[in-house]
Design a protein that fits this description.
Layout (H helix, E strand, L loop, with lengths): L2 H4 L7 E13 L2 E10 L3 E6 L15 E7 L2 E7 H4 L11 E7 L2 E7 L1 E9 L8 H4 L6 E7 L2 E6 L1 H8 L2 H4 L11 E6 L3 H13 L2 E6 L2 H17 L10 E4 L8 H9 L9 E5 L7 H6 L4 E4 L3 H21 L1
Parallel strand pairs: 2-10, 5-7, 11-12, 11-13, 13-14, 14-15
Antiparallel strand pairs: 1-2, 1-8, 3-6, 4-5, 6-7, 9-10
Helix pairs in contact: 7-8
Length: 318
């Protein structure tokens, strides 16, 4: 399954998900819970081998050890255990094999339904209570075929299992003066870490939870600057955006910025696990100034400072 073939044209504010389910034992009743992840992160779906069980001394009870898959040794996570769902036993189960941040992992589920094309505008954000939980891995909900599908943030699961994925701060630098950054990411834990890093790097930070909210906030900042007889480029220095977000994705957000004559004078950095060699052209098409792959948190502030300095040099020459 190729992410290059699956992902739709950049800036359409659409994407495709693979829908899977977990059959739950709920007392004397049984139910089926539906979930989804971006197809671009899925390599394949394979049948689960028999005999998978929790590994002794594992970092989390959901860790089921490893299985061989061609030339790979694949770690397996029981998604039902992670989600605290009592899964119904089944003779036939599936492994959704993903590649995220260069890490290949298998997630055990009951079954897979199909691939859906949806618009980010149709993906509803979870309640504020859920969204603000640091341990939350649900980034949104969407109604498909008269049922609700929960979008799973697999990165947050992997990061909690291996905190070193996001704790490497090598390469972090500070701005030479107080600058300002607009940061948008739908993950509460990622927002918190980015906020911490940019504050430490001598930035004022404006945080948003999705592309639509960030776009509306940016336009409001632009209008306020104009009302004050100033320009947005005097109030804001850089924009850092995730790609996968409810309401408006990072590609569409970036395209909107670069199509605005004034806002286009601000550097935009895309920060996402979707940034790979095969998908780098997507960001280039919407004229992103830089693209940084999660979890390179430490390098991000330095890359932002580099872009700010480039743009300031251009304005000085104009």
């Amino acid at each position: 399954m190729s992410g290059n073939e699956i992902l739709l044209d950049t800036g359409t504010n659409e994407f495709e998900i693979i829908e899977f389910y977990i059959d739950e034992k709920n007392g004397g009743n049984e139910s089926r819970d539906y979930f989804g992840v971006n197809v671009a992160k899925v390599l394949e779906v394979v049948e689960a081998p028999a005999g998978l069980e929790a590994a002794e001394g594992a970092p989390h009870p959901s860790y089921l050890g490893t299985m061989s898959l061609r030339d790979m040794i694949l770690p397996i996570i029981d998604l039902s255990v992670w989600l605290e769902i009592e899964r119904k036993d089944s003779e036939f189960q599936l492994i959704v094999v993903t590649e995220i941040n260069g890490v290949v992992t298998g997630f055990l589920v009951t079954g897979v339904t199909q691939i859906h094309r949806i618009g980010w505008a149709d993906l509803k954000t979870p309640s504020k209570y859920i969204a603000d939980l640091d341990s939350n891995c649900i980034t949104g909900t969407i109604e498909l075929n008269n049922r609700f599908v929960l979008m799973i943030d697999l990165e947050s699961i992997l990061a909690e299992l291996d905190p070193t994925m996001i704790e490497n701060q090598e390469g972090a630098v500070s701005a030479p003066e107080r600058w300002s950054a607009l940061i948008v990411d739908d993950s509460a834990s990622v927002r918190a870490l980015l906020n911490k890093n940019f504050l430490a790097a001598n930035f004022d930070v404006h945080l948003f939870t999705n592309g639509l909210e960030a776009w509306e906030g940016l336009k409001a900042m632009q209008k306020k600057a104009e009302d004050e007889g100033s320009s947005i480029v005097d109030k804001l220095d850089v924009i850092v955006s995730d790609i996968e977000m409810p309401q408006m994705d990072g590609y569409t957000f970036t395209r909107n910025i670069k199509e605005d004559a004034v806002l286009a004078r601000l550097p935009v950095i895309l920060f996402s696990s979707l940034i790979t060699k095969g998908l780098h052209h997507k960001g280039e098409k919407v004229k992103a100034d830089d693209q940084v792959t999660k979890p390179e948190f430490g390098a991000l502030t330095g890359r932002a400072i580099t872009q700010i300095e480039k743009y300031r040099a251009k304005r000085a020459e104009a």
